[in-house]
Amino acid sequence: MRVRRLTAMISSVPLGLALTVGFAGEAQAASAPCGPAAKACLDLSANQAWLMNNGAVTYGPVPVTHGKPGWETPPGTFKVTRKSRHHRSSQFNNAPMPYSVFFNGGIAFHQGSLREQSHGCVRLTKAAAAKFFGTLKIGDQVQVVP
């Protein structure tokens, strides 16, 4: 009976949507649009980010917001250069940027509103920002795809 229910559930998933179950029991995408060296992957057009290890998704996708017109988050391959748990912006009125992981000059993953675009940074929920902060290390590769 249980196998029959599971088969019915799987057959109701839209074609092309592959899911795997993560360690925390949450549904995760089976792949991300980044190369195997990336530890963090950001898809600007999908507004999603992932943590990865050797090309395999370890966390995500998670929703993000990023740079607004005139302040676009640039695509490319970068390295994590610094981290700051309680960072505040020196450029934008001392704005709080908790769990900042900088990877392209002043551009960072950090906790922030998902309702509005940023000045180039990648905003995440508190839980996702904490996970990115705790997982990424200085020197890890971040890949940003258009």
UniProtKB/TrEMBL annotation:
GO biological process terms, semicolon-separated: cell wall organization; peptidoglycan-protein cross-linking; regulation of cell shape
Gene3D superfamilies registered for this protein in UniProt: L,D-transpeptidase catalytic domain-like (2.40.440.10)
The keyword Cell wall biogenesis/degradation is assigned to this record: yes
Keywords: Cell shape, Cell wall biogenesis/degradation, Peptidoglycan synthesis, Signal, Transferase
Active site per UniProt: 110 (proton donor/acceptor), 121 (nucleophile)
Signal peptide stretch: 1-29
Annotated GO CC locations: extracellular region
Pfam assignment, any one: YkuD
Residue ranges of every copy of the L,D-TPase catalytic domain listed in the record: 38-145
Keyword Cell wall biogenesis/degradation assigned: yes
SUPFAM superfamilies xref list: L,D-transpeptidase catalytic domain-like
Annotated metabolic or biological route of this protein: Cell wall biogenesis; peptidoglycan biosynthesis
Superkingdom: Bacteria
GO molecular function, a single term: peptidoglycan L,D-transpeptidase activity
UniProt-recorded name of the protein: Murein L,D-transpeptidase
Lineage per the UniProt record: Bacteria, Bacillati, Actinomycetota, Actinomycetes, Pseudonocardiales
